[in-house]
Amino acid sequence: MAGSQLTPVETALEHILAQAPVIDRTETVPLTEALGRILAEPCLVPADVPPADNSAVDGYAIRHADLAEEQPIPVSDRIPAGTAPLPLAPGSAARIFTGSEIPEGADAVVMQERVEVTDSGIRVLAAVEPSQNIRKRGQDLRQGDQALPRGTRIRPQEMGLLASMGMAHVTVTAPLRVAILTTGDELVEPGEPLKPGQIYNTNRFTLLGLLEEAGCEVVLCETLEDTREATVETLSRAASSADLIITSGGVSVGEEDHVRAVLEARGGLSLWRLAIKPGKPLAFGSISGTPVLGLPGNPAAVLVTFLVVGMPYIRRCQGRATTPPVGERLPAGFEVPAPSVRREFVRARKALLNGKTTIEAFPNQSSGVLSSACWADGLAVVPENTTVKPGNLLTYYSFNELLG
Ligand SMILES: Nc1nc2c(c(=O)[nH]1)N[C@H]1C(S)=C(S)[C@@H](COP(=O)(O)OP(=O)(O)OC[C@H]3O[C@@H](n4cnc5c(N)ncnc54)[C@H](O)[C@@H]3O)O[C@H]1N2
Ligand code: MOO
Ligand SMILES: [Mg+2]
Known about the structure:
It comes from Marinobacter koreensis. The protein is 19% helix and 29% strand. With 404 residues, the protein is α/β, with parallel strands linked by helices. The strands form 8 sheets. Strands 16-13-17-21-20-18 form a 6-stranded mixed β-sheet, sandwiched between helices. Strands 19, 22, 23, 24, 25 and 26 form a 6-stranded mixed β-sheet that branches. Strands 5-6-4-7 form a 4-stranded mixed β-sheet, with no helix packed on it. The radius of gyration is 30 Å and the shape is elongated. The model has no long low-confidence stretch (mean pLDDT 96). It binds ligand LQZAQKY5, molybdate ion and magnesium ion.
């Protein structure tokens, strides 16, 4: 696959995913630090949630059968949330609150707005169904069931769910250790003055942000000179501490492009040149057994290829599902007059056009124009060998979905 032909995106993904090792290192973290982490084992429900039947409203717990008797019904008890109720005395009602446990013997709760309170008890003013306003024990989670599968990424709602089961700690996969190597003699770090011929190192920061959002640990972040010696030395050093090396630049055909050349010379290049736009010269291989994802240097190509190729790889290593993103089918609000053999990922966003949701494309899709990606909220896909007219349906993926 490292020949001169462009490899289709699907074929490349299949090839790369087949080589993604699932990380088996785990660690136990406090729930307060679990956001964004990935469950290393399925989470089984230790006890029903909620642990007891409880009231959905503020009102009165009753026996449904007592409604057939003469009213008012005397109020024999008061059950604030957080207390353990006594059984409901026959022929009586209990004052109850939202979240209070239902007393034994009660089988319905009447909202207080549906009740007239008199000196001798309550009169129920509306029809009441059996079980009305009772939230059943275990309605959320049943003891012994699987609450969350292995590989779940913990979002705020999963933090809440784990807490609802009383879990103070969770076992998660250790973060994927990633090295970021940016290549280019023209690169200068932000904060330094620019000399003629120099530009700021953009990709380092895009990649730092992407990897943080993807839940990875950046173990090394260096910029290398455009020489074969520096490339061999730094790649080899990174290989000893990282699970994955991500490089930017140096994968095209110029004699200053050393990343692809070094991988090839060491027999570790397994994929080069994809039918993707931007990002064509993407390279994948390994050095000393550590996988290397060689992203092209152009800043928009880095973002697109990371999202389309890098994220599925990372997800697989993290033990997460790698089902392709779903996206949305939406009409294009732009034109692509000339077909390309490469699948194009257009920096785009949704817009309302005459009341209809449409995909709007940033006018300059050059892979050197990163402001396109800041303007955009996602990527629209123009399939290979296809022209686009306004109104044609395209698939649109939000950045959130691609990075989720
Ligand atoms: N003769 C050909 N030239 C090029 C081809 C081709 O097929 N034949 N492909 C072009 C395409 S497409 C791309 S994409 C680039 C990829 O080039 P490299 O991966 O070798 O990257 P570089 O040459 O090192 O850099 C490309 C471009 O990006 C800028 N850059 C690199 N790193 C950074 C960084 N960290 N921050 C900001 N900007 C960066 C660099 O200055 C160059 O302008 O090759 C085309 N050429
Ligand atoms: O594939 Mo390159 O990123 O098109 O310029
Ligand atoms: Mg180059």
